[in-house]
Write a structure and sequence with these properties.
With about 210 residues, the chain is mostly helical. The chain has helices spanning about 25-50, 50-75, 80-90, 105-115, 125-135, 180-195, 200-205; strands spanning about 140, 145, 160-165, 170-175. It has a domain at about 35-150. Strand 1 (about 140) and strand 2 form a beta hairpin.
Length: about 210
């Protein structure tokens, strides 16, 4: 019989010695970035041709999709009509009959609008806490009670992305330990506030890492 071989421990991106000091090949990205900028220019031109009402409707549609997608990442499927109505109320866009207000939907909408409409305001830890509290107004993520609007702790174990039935869970990702969050976030915010050198799209891609 062969001795049982232990699976090597997975190394997550935050465990790399060079994290988060990234290097990238600007030449390899040049053609792709050019395509994106051409598409941006085309979209800006199309938007400029629209009347005010049509522009409002296009903005409403884009923000609605952003909110739906943001929630889907967290495993939540929001009601499309509720999201659209919530955004319309806040932007003052007339869409006829509005769906009833939903506290959770309104929280996600407030977060997305703050991030997209007030992007020039300083990004701080307190602002991030506010977004987190808006995403989880009840203090629960699914059936789990979570720390909302504050640094998380590891009292119940590390934060993990898990799938599969109970007893056969598969861990897809484990977050950095809670004790490291204040310093890591401060370093990220300092990097974020610095004027980017080069194409902003590259930095938008690096930020989630």
């Amino acid at each position: 019989m062969h001795p049982h071989k232990l699976q090597p421990r997975r190394t997550y991106i935050w465990q790399r010695p060079d994290w988060p000091q990234w290097r990238f090949d600007a030449q390899a990205l040049a053609a792709l970035l050019a395509q994106v900028h051409r598409a941006q220019g085309h979209l800006a031109g199309r938007m400029a041709e629209l009347g005010l009402a049509q522009r409002d409707q296009a903005t409403l549609q884009a923000l609605t999709q952003e909110v739906i997608t943001t929630s889907a990442i967290e495993g939540e499927a929001l009601n499309l009509d509720a999201v659209r109505s919530s955004i319309a109320r806040r932007l003052g866009v007339d869409i006829g009959a509005l769906a009833p207000a939903d506290r959770h939907v309104d929280g996600v909408v407030d977060m997305v609008l703050d991030a997209t409409q007030r992007y020039a305001q300083p990004l701080t830890a307190e602002r991030l806490f506010g977004w987190h509290a808006a995403l989880f107004p009840t203090g629960y993520s699914g059936r789990l009670r979570i720390q909302v609007g504050a640094w998380r702790n590891d009292a119940s174990g590390p934060m993990q992305v898990v799938s599969g039935p109970v007893g056969r869970e598969k861990v897809h990702f484990e977050a950095p330990p809670a004790i490291a969050l204040p310093a890591a976030t401060a370093a990220f915010l300092q990097w974020y506030r610095a004027a980017p050198v080069g194409d902003p799209l590259v930095y938008a891609g690096l930020a989630p890492l």
